[in-house]
Amino acid sequence: MPDRPDVPHELVERLRSLLDFPECIEESAWTGTRWRVRHSTVAHVFGGEDQRFRVTFRAEPGEVAAFAHLGAPYFKTDWGENVVGLLLDDETDWGELAELLTDSYCIQAPQQLAVAVDRPA
């Protein structure tokens, strides 16, 4: 089985800047890095066995099927009902990813924290 590559520091830094939310903490995960609010994962970046990098996050239940059917660079994981992801590459739309991560935070955070965040329309 191929090894998973370490996530480049520059990629973690870029995601860190998008995940600067109240009580959102960064920590090492089983592979890669994850961000959590209280005990709930907001985002997780990791390298795959195919040597490509992915970020997973939470989506509203009504949007999960759309992510599954969009195809690359989006995907649905088997890790939970509302966990979806995005393959990170030179074509990544970082503005869109910022909105997706904001939604993920608002889904996972307690209401009193989520209301303090400007959520995309």
Set down the secondary structure blueprint.
Blueprint: H1 9-18, E1 24-28, E2 33-37, E3 40-47, E4 53-58, H2 61-70, E5 74-76, E6 83-88, H3 94-108, H4 111-114
Antiparallel strand pairs: 1-2, 2-3, 3-4, 4-6, 5-6
Characteristics:
Aspartate Aminotransferase, domain 1; 4 helices; alpha+beta; 27% strand; 121 residues; single chain; six-stranded antiparallel β-sheet
3D architecture notes:
This protein is globular. It has helices at residues 9-18, 61-70, 94-108, 111-114, and strands spanning 24-28, 33-37, 40-47, 53-58, 74-76, 83-88. It contains four helices and six strands; from the N terminus they run H-E-E-E-E-H-E-E-H-H. The protein has a single domain (9-114), classed as Aspartate Aminotransferase, domain 1 (Alpha-Beta Complex). 32% of the residues lie in helices and 27% in strands. With 121 residues, it is α+β, with helices and mostly antiparallel strands. Strands 1-2-3-4-6-5 form a six-stranded antiparallel beta sheet. InterPro entries: YjbR-like_sf, YjbR/MT2646/Rv2570-like. Keywords: DNA-binding. This is MmcQ/YjbR family DNA-binding protein. GO terms for molecular function: DNA binding.
